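Reopening this one. Same input as before:
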Amino acid sequence: MHVRRINMGAAIVASGLAVAALFGTTGQAEAQVRAGIEAGMAYRSSTPKLDPGLAAGAHAEFKIIPMLSIGPYYLWSSLNPSDASAMAANAVLHSWGGRIRFTLPLPDSSFRPFAYAGLGRTGIHYPGEYGAGNAYESGPLAADLTSRSGWFLEVPIGLGLGYQVQRAVQLSADFALRPGFNFKGDAFEGEKAYDQPKMGLSLLLGAAIDI
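Same output, byte for byte:
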C-alpha cells in the first residue's frame, strides 16, 4: 500500500512536469500561462472518521488580465482511517475541475498574495471493512472486501502566498476550504452508508513556471 501511494505521487509529479514541458514547447514567448505542481495534506469529514492524509496535484492557469487567471486543477489524496480496525486501507479521493485565481500585485516585491475559487468533481473510494471473523479461529481479523465508491461536487476556496524566485519560477503555499454537496453513489446509500464528507481542507506547497 505504501508503494502504491509513492507510485501515485510520482505519477502526479511526472504528469505536472509533462504538462509544463508541453506548454513550454508549444507556447509562444508572450503566452500568459502558468503550470505547476503541489503536495501537502488534505482532510475530509467522515464517519467512520478519517485522519488528515497525503495530497498531491497539478494545475494550469491562463491569464485573462494581469491580476486574473483561470484554468483546470487536479488533486489526489489518501486519507487514513482513525480506527485502524475500521477499514482495510485508506480512503482515496480524486478531485478535478476548474478555478479562477486573483493575484494581488505588490510593486517592488517578490511576494504574490492570491485567492481562488472553483468548482470540481471529487470521486471517493472506500476500501473493504474489517469483520470479526470466526471466533474459534486464531489469526488476524477477516476482511470484508466489498468496497464502495461515490462522488460529489466540491467548491475549493483558497488563500495563498507566492514568491517569485526568478522571472519565470514561483514557489507557493495555500490553504483551502473544500465544501462538498450533491453526493451520489453506493458509498452514501443503503443501511451502512458512509457519512457524507461535506467539509474538506487542504494545505499545499507548490512550484510553478510561467510560460
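So the earlier flakiness isn't reproducible anymore. For the record, The radius of gyration is 20 Å.
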